[in-house]
Design goal:
Chain A is built from nine helices and twelve strands. With about 260 residues, chain A is an alpha/beta fold. Chain A has two domains: about 150 residues, Rossmann fold; about 60 residues, no CATH class. The longest helix of chain A has 16 residues. Classes of the chains: A alpha/beta (about 260), B mainly alpha (about 350). Chains A and B meet through α2, β6, α3 and α4 of A and α10 and α11 of B.
Chain lengths: ~260, ~350
């Protein structure tokens, strides 16, 4: 498991996250929600080993993340960033293959091809990344992450997927399918941590919901225990919104996973 | 034959440009050999292809003594120097573009060459006095080493100033480069005032750029730098590919980002500085060659870096052959020829069909 203990990060005199402790467990899909500036991305950076906290520490199965070599970490976890722009015309396949190479795959081309197929981009292999739409680019990046940790458990040790707003530029159908792929990864024994803004998607997919506000964890647990009118009111400033159907003349669409 | 060569790198299908890369590399090797023969053959005293082959295969009886002297004392060192300088310039350009994630980065445009030139001028003017002990100690390597450190200082300054959170915008890169280049130029101006006539002649040579003074000594003084840069290509290629996605993504994929960047900065300065020391500032090779190669083989550094070495060598030898012949018996500065090739490519990149320069990508 991946564990953060009493992690604090300060920048320019402000605490971005303050004494946060969080455990990612194998087989669990964890989702972080919270308003803008709550420290969600910072928390993910600390957990992925990208950012060294000012105090507290992060461990991967007992090993301090700061002492791990980047190469070894790369085989244990992959990170899907928010929108990535490129100045050079790499093809979709070449991007996905970078993930497979990071994994040390013996046949990175084939691994990358499989990953692209998993995100529904079969046939897009030779498309130059800069010419793809925002949503397609995001899925190529997801394929890269999948190619980096193609199996949820390696030699008995679970791997992790970190997804920073994986659904941000995707249409409804792809939002669902990306999160389903991530859920399959967790179901196969991996660890998943996703940052989401859509509370309905979060409630649909999260086994474990973490609510972050002003750099602190204000609520944590299964969705039905955490998503309440009180929490929504105190964190987002919207009153009485949970489970209430909009006015009769407002149509609403609540996308749902196909397998639940 | 090319198919056979490409076999171990067979494409795994659509979107994989591995065999395309291998094919282009093979073609570049052929082009480079042709450019070497051209460079050895043309000039005021032409040497025919057949005689050249005979000489190179160890059977030089068909050459007159004069032709043999010209080949051995003038053309061979000049060709070797052109090869090394062209390779160094193109690879330093390609590496710099990877480091800054920007196809417009070029050691000449962003002031790295100026830094190396300033250090070279410093070495010429102060080499007999203040820096005499260092000069004595390093001998042949004094000038290239000084130029290397000059280039290193400017590359490092540029990186620190123009890069925020691991990103370098085109605007910041070009403007910082101009400022740093101008500063180096100003110091060079100060030193020129202090220079005597003989030193002034040497300095003029740097500002124009030429392979004219090629000697075996110069070839040997630059050789270790270029060998070093070529030797690190396999160790930085994958990292530079990953770096295209950003510092964070490269780290996530297991690249030790800070170490990679330090190595690349040193390599850029070594390639650029040493070439400036022996041949002066020759612009645009570092931007034209990688740009054309990206169109031909894709942007992956696995092929782009070795391809740039081959293509840079070939381009410079061809440009030098042109510089020697178009206005014979006078010789054009080679920098004029490369700028004629290169400046339009730079403008094309800046305006670009996809407007890379204007959109100001990271």
């Amino acid at each position: 498991m991946i564990r953060a203990e009493n992690v604090t990060v300060s920048r320019a005199g402000r605490k971005l996250i303050d004494q946060v402790s969080l455990t990612l467990e194998p087989g669990r899909f964890s989702v972080v929600i919270g308003p803008n500036g709550a420290g969600k991305s910072t928390l993910m950076k600390v957990l992925s080993g990208e950012m060294v906290p000012d105090s507290g520490h992060v461990s991967y199965y007992g090993a301090d993340v700061a002492a791990c070599k980047p190469v070894d970490l790369a085989r244990r976890r992959a990170v899907l960033p928010q929108a990535t722009q490129l100045a050079f015309p790499f093809s979709a396949l070449e991007i996905a293959r970078m993930g497979a190479v990071a994994n040390g795959s013996l046949n990175p081309g084939e691994e990358a091809r499989k990953a692209l197929a998993r995100v529904g981009l079969r046939g897009f292999e030779s498309r130059p990344y800069p010419s793809m739409s925002g949503g397609e680019q995001q899925r190529v990046q997801f394929a890269r992450a999948l190619a980096q940790v193609p199996r949820a458990v390696v030699d008995g040790v679970p791997c992790a997927l970190f997804l920073d707003e994986p659904t941000a530029s995707l249409d409804l159908g792809h939002q669902i399918s990306v999160l389903e792929t991530a859920r399959d990864f967790a179901a196969a024994g991996g660890m998943v941590l996703a940052i989401l803004h859509d509370l309905n998607l979060a409630a649909e997919f999260a086994d474990h919901l973490v609510v972050l506000n002003h750099g602190c964890v204000v609520a944590e647990g299964p969705c039905h225990d955490t998503v309440s009118d009180e929490m929504i009111a105190s964190v987002y400033g919207i009153a009485g919104a949970v489970g209430r159907v909009p006015a009769a003349h407002v149509p609403y669409v609540l996308p749902q996973s196909r397998h639940r | 034959m090319m198919k056979a060569l490409a076999m171990p790198f067979r494409n795994t299908g659509e979107g994989d440009r591995t065999s395309q890369g291998v094919l282009v590399i093979v073609l570049l090797v052929v082009l480079l050999i042709a450019a070497c023969l051209l460079s050895l053959g043309v000039g005021p005293t032409g040497v025919g292809l057949r005689d050249l082959f005979a000489y190179l295969t160890g059977n030089g009886d068909s050459l007159t003594t004069q032709e043999r002297v010209i080949l051995e004392a003038v053309r061979l060192p000049r060709t070797a120097l052109g090869l090394l300088v062209g390779a160094g310039l193109a690879v330093s350009g390609a590496m710099m573009q990877g480091l800054f994630r920007n196809p417009l980065a070029d050691p000449g445009i962003v002031g790295v060459t100026s830094g190396a030139g300033l250090a070279a001028v410093l070495a010429i003017v102060l080499g007999g006095t203040v820096l005499a002990p260092v000069s004595m100690l390093l001998g042949n390597q004094f000038l290239p080493l000084m130029a290397f450190f000059g280039g290193l200082i400017n590359t490092w300054m540029l990186y620190v100033i123009a890069t925020r959170d691991g990103r370098t915008s085109t605007t910041a890169l070009i403007l910082c480069g101009i400022a740093i280049g101008a500063l180096s130029g100003a110091f060079m101006g100060l030193l020129i005032v202090m220079a005597d006539d003989r030193q002034l002649r040497d300095i003029t040579f740097w500002s124009l750029g030429s392979l004219g003074g090629a000697t075996y000594g110069r070839v040997l003084s630059i050789l270790p730098f270029i060998v070093f840069v070529m030797a690190i290509i396999p160790f930085v290629a994958r990292g530079l590919d990953a770096l295209v996605l950003g510092d964070a993504a490269a780290f996530h994929m297991g690249v030790p980002v800070q170490r990679l960047k330090r190595i690349v900065i040193v390599a850029v300065a070594a390639a650029c500085g040493s070439t400036v020391a022996v041949a002066g500032s020759i612009g645009f090779v570092g931007i034209v060659v990688p740009h054309l190669l990206r169109l031909a083989m894709g942007p992956s550094h696995r092929f782009l870096l070795p391809g740039s070495a081959l293509g840079g060598g070939a381009l410079l030898l061809i440009a030098d052959a042109v510089a020697r012949t178009v206005a014979a018996p006078a010789e054009l500065p080679i920098g004029v020829i490369t700028a004629l090739f290169g400046a339009p490519v730079f403008l094309f990149l800046l305006i670009g069909r996809n407007g890379i320069g204007m959109r100001d990508l990271p």
